[in-house]
Amino acid sequence: MSTAHRIGIFFVAFSSASAWQPTANINGIVVDAKGPVAGARVGWQGQSERVVADEQGRFRLPPVASAPGSTAKRIVATKAGYRIASTQASDKPITLRLELLPKNDNADYEWIDPHTDPKKPNNCANCHAEIHREWQHSAHAKSATNPKFLSLFDGDNGKHRTWNAKAEHPDGSAVCATCHAPTMSSPKLDYDIRKAQGVAKSGVHCDYCHKVADVPTDKLGLRFGRDGMFLLRPAKGELLTFGPLDDAVRPGESFAHAPVYRESRYCASCHEGVVFGVHAYATYSEWLESPAKKAGKQCQDCHMTPTGKMTNIARGKGGIARDPRSLASHHTPGGDADMLKKSLKLKPSLTGRQVIVDVVADNVGHRVPTGFVDRHLILVVLAIDAKGAAIGLVEGPRLPASAGKWKGMPGVLYAKQLIGDKKRTPLAFWMPVFETVDTRLYPDRPDRQTLVFKNEPSHVTIQLWYRRFWQDVADARGWRDNDVLATESTIKKQ
Ligand code: HEC
Ligand code: HEC
Ligand code: HEC
Ligand code: HEC
Ligand code: HEC
Question: What is the C-alpha separation between 375 and 218, in angstroms, rounded?
Answer without folding.
Answer: 27
